[in-house]
C-alpha cells in the first residue's frame, strides 16, 4: 500500500512540477509580450508626436501657400487689368491700321483667284491620279481572286492526296524499335514547321508593313491635297503675310521720307536689288518646277515598278505560303499516320503480349492440373497398390487400363498444344514480315520527304533573298519620296516668298508717287532757305543800324544795357526769319499732302549751338537784371525787363502781332532815318524786350500769317542788289543761329 501511495505521490509531484514549468513558461512569455507591447506603445506615441509635428508643419505650409496664392491672385488681377488696358490700346491701334489692311486685301483677292486656278488644276491632276490608282487596285483584286481560285484547287488536290494516303496507310504494323525513329522524325518535322511558321509570320509582317507604308504615302498625299485646298488656311496665311509686309514696309517708308536727300538713290538701289531678287527667285522657281516635274515622272515610274514588284512578290509569297501549307499538311498527315501506326503497333504488341501471357497462364494452369492429376494418380495408384497388396493380384488389370487411358489423353493434349504453338509461331512470322515491309516503306517515304524539304528550303532561301532585295528597294523609294516631299516644301516656300515680294512691290509702287513728290518738296525747301538767308542778312544790317541809333541817342551810363539789348535782338531776329522759313515749309507740305502733321523741335544740344556760350560777366548781368528789373531807357513810361531765357540760347517768341516788326525790318535804310527817335525806341522796347519768361512753340496759324506777310514784303531786298552784296559780305553771318525742323508723318 505504501508503495502504491508513494508511486501516486511521485506521479502527482511530477505532474505538478510539469504544470509549474508550463506556468513559468507562460509567465515568461506574457512578460516578454508585455515588454514588447510597452515598446510598441512608446513607439506609437513617438510616431503620434511626429505625426502631430508633421501635421502642424503641413498646416503652416498650407497657410503660407494660401497667403502666397492670395498675393499671386492679386498680382495676377493687376496684371490682368494692365494686360486688358494694353490689349484695348492695341485694339485701337489695329482698328486704326485696318484701312491700310483693307487696301492690301484687295491685292490679296487677285492673288487668291490665281491660287484658286492653280489649286483647281492640281485637284484635277490628283483626281486623275486617284482614278489610275483605283484601276491598278481593281486589277490587283482580280489577280487576287484568280490566285484564291488556284489555291482552292490546290487545296482540293491536296485533300484528295491526303485521303489516298490515309487509305493506303490504313493497315500497317510496327515494332518497338520504330518508336525512337518516329520520335526523331517528329522532332525534326516540328523544328521545320516552327521555322516555316516563323518565315510565314515574317513574310506576312513584311507585307503588312509594305501595305501600311503605301497607305501612309496615300494618306500623306491626301493630307497634302487637303492642306493645299483649304481656303481658310490660305486666307489666314495671306492675312499674316500681308500684315508682315505692312509691318516691314511702314518703317522703311518712314525712313525714306525722313531721309529725303537719299530718296532717289535708295529707290534705284531698291529697284535693282528687288529686280535681281525677283530674277533669282524666278530662276530658282523654274528650276524647282522642272525638278518637281522630273521627280513626279520618276516617282510615277518608280511607283509603277514598285507596284509590279509588289505584285510579283505577292504572287511568290502566295505560292510559297501555299507550298508551305501543303508541306505542313503533308507533314501533319505523316505525323498522324506515324502516330496511328505507332498506336496500332502498340495495340497489336499489347494483344500479342496478352495472348502470350494468357498462353503462359494456360500452360501454368495445365501444369497445375497435370500436377494435381499426377498427385491424384499417385494417390490412387498407391491406394490401389495397397489394396492390391491386401487383396492380391486381382486389380492389376484395371490399373494398367487406367494408365494406358492416361497416356492416351496426355498424348492427345500434347498434340493439340503443339499444333497451337505452331500456329502461334506462324502468326508471329507473318507479323514480323508485315512490320519489316512497313519499315521499308517508311524509310522510303522519309528519304522522299528529305528531298522535298531540301527543295523547299532552297525555295525559301530564294524567297528570303528576294524579300531582302525588295526591302532595300522600298527603302530607296522611301528616301526618294522624302526628297520629293522636301523639294515640294521648298517650292511652296519659294512660291510664298514670291507672293510676299509681289505684294511688297505693289505697295512700293503705290508709295513711289509720294516719294517722287519729295523732289518738288526739296526744291521748295531750298527756295525757302534761300529767302530765309536773304531776310536774315537784311535783318542783321537793320540790327546794326538800330544799335548805332541807340548808341548815338542814349547817354553813356546806359551803354552796357544797350549792348545787352542788342545781344538779345541778335538772337531773336534770325529766329524770326527762320520761323518764317519753317512756316513756308509747312505751307508747301500742307499744299502737297493735306494729311501731314507738323511738329517743330528745338535745336539738338549735341549739335552746333545756335549762339556762343555766355561769359561770367553776361551771367552776372543776367541775374542782376532779373532781380533789379532795370530799364533800358528811363525817359519812357513803358517798363521792360530782359528775359533770362533770351540770352542762353533759347530766345522767346514775341506775343504781339509781328507784322509791324516785319514792316520795319523790310524798310530801306534811306527811308528809316527821318523817323523820330522816340517812336523808334518805344517800338524797339515794345517789340524786342518782353516780360514773358516761358518758352512757347509757334503754331500753324503763326506760320501761315508770317508766310503771307513775308511773301508781300520780300520784294524790297530783291530790288537793292548793292545792299544784298553788302549783306553777304557781312562777317556776322557766321554767328547766325540755326534751327532744324523735322517733318514727321
UniProtKB/TrEMBL annotation:
Keywords attached to this entry: Coiled coil
Biased composition (Basic and acidic residues): 730-745
Keyword Coiled coil found: yes
Location of region: Disordered: 583-620, 640-676, 708-745
Chain coiled-coil ranges: 6-54, 349-387, 453-480
Keyword Membrane assigned: no
Compositionally biased tracts (Polar residues): 653-676
Highest taxon in the source lineage: Eukaryota
Protein known as: Uncharacterized protein
Organism from which the protein derives: Trichoderma harzianum (Hypocrea lixii)
